[in-house]
C-alpha cells in the first residue's frame, strides 16, 4: 500500500486533468445506489481529490455530513482546494488521512461514528489491492448493520491487453481484478450495473450489510 500511496502523492496535481468525463454517468449511478436521504452521513472512502463531495452533499441535505477518507496527504490537500474552489460547505465535510491497511482501528471509529448507519461509497480504489477481498472484508466487518455500500470500479478488462496495462500504470492497479465479487458474497440486496467502454467496462455494485 505504501507504493500505491506514493504513486497518488505524485499524481495528485494532475489527477483531475480529464475532468472525470469517462466516469460521470457511472459515478452518479453509484451515488444514486447509496439511496441518500436528508440527515445521512456519507463516507467517501478513498475520496481522492473530492470529486464526489458536491453530489454527496446534495444527497444528504443541509443536516447531513460527508466524511472523506484517504491515505494520500497530497490527494487530501487537493480535496481541500476543491472545497474552497467550489464554495462547498466545509463545515459539513470532514477529512481524515487513514491508511486503512495499517490503521483499521481508526477506520472502525469513523465507520461507527454516525448516529445511524452510514452510506459508504468506494470509487476506483479496490483494484489497487492485490488482496481486495480481504480489504473489503475488513471494511465490511467494521461497518454497523444496516450500512449501505456502493462501489464504482474500473475500467475492468477481461484480459491484460495493452490498453489494460496502460490504465494499470496510471492507476497503480490491476484492472482485471473482479472487485465486485466481495460485495456479491457479503451484501444483502446485491445489485450490479455495467457501463460499457471501449474494450472495457465500468462497474457499479451495491447492497446493504444485513
Any overview of this molecule?
The protein has eight helices and seven strands; from the N terminus they run H-H-E-H-E-H-E-H-E-H-E-H-H-E-E. It has 210 residues and is of the alpha/beta class. It has a single domain, classed as Rossmann fold. The longest helix has 13 residues, at 73-85.
List the helices and strands and how they pair.
Elements lengths: L1 H10 L12 H10 L7 E5 L7 H8 L4 E6 L2 H13 L7 E5 L6 H9 L6 E5 L8 H11 L5 E9 L5 H10 L9 H6 L1 E10 L2 E9 L2
Parallel strand pairs: 1-2, 1-4, 2-3, 4-5
Antiparallel strand pairs: 5-7, 6-7
Overall mean pLDDT? 91
* Total discrete domains: 1
Largest sheet entry: 7 strands, mixed
Strand order of the largest sheet: 3-2-1-4-5-7-6
| CATH class (first level) name | Alpha Beta
Strand runs, count: 7
List SSEs in N-to-C order. HHEHEHEHEHEHHEE
Ends distance: 29 Å
Percentage of residues in helical conformation? 25-40%
Outline of this structure?
This protein is α/β, with parallel strands linked by helices and 210 residues long. It is built from eight helices and seven strands.
Key phrases:
globular, 210 residues, seven-stranded mixed β-sheet, Rossmann fold, 7 strands, alpha/beta
Amino acid at each position: 500500500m505504501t507504493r500505491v500511496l506514493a504513486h497518488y502523492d505524485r499524481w495528485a496535481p494532475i489527477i483531475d486533468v480529464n475532468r472525470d468525463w469517462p466516469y460521470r454517468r457511472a459515478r452518479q449511478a453509484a451515488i444514486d445506489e447509496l439511496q441518500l436521504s436528508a440527515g445521512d452521513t456519507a463516507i467517501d472512502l478513498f475520496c481522492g481529490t473530492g470529486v464526489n463531495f458536491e453530489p454527496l452533499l446534495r444527497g444528504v441535505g443541509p443536516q447531513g455530513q460527508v466524511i472523506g477518507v484517504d491515505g494520500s496527504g497530497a490527494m487530501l490537500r487537493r480535496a481541500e482546494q476543491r472545497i474552497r474552489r467550489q464554495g462547498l460547505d466545509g463545515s459539513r465535510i470532514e477529512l481524515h488521512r487513514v491508511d486503512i491497511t495499517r490503521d483499521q482501528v481508526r477506520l472502525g471509529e469513523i465507520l461507527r461514528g454516525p448516529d445511524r448507519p452510514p452510506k459508504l461509497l468506494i470509487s476506483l480504489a479496490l483494484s489497487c489491492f492485490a488482496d481486495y477481498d480481504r480489504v473489503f472484508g475488513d471494511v465490511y466487518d467494521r461497518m454497523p448493520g444496516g450500512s449501505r455500500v456502493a462501489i464504482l470500479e474500473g475500467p475492468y478488462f477481461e484480459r491484460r491487453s495493452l490498453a489494460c496495462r496502460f490504465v494499470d500504470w496510471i492507476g497503480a492497479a490491476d484492472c482485471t481484478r473482479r472487485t465486485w465479487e466481495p460485495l456479491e458474497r457479503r451484501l444483502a440486496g446485491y445489485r450490479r450495473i455495467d457501463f460499457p467502454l471501449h474494450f472495457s467496462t465500468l462497474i457499479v455494485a451495491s447492497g446493504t450489510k444485513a
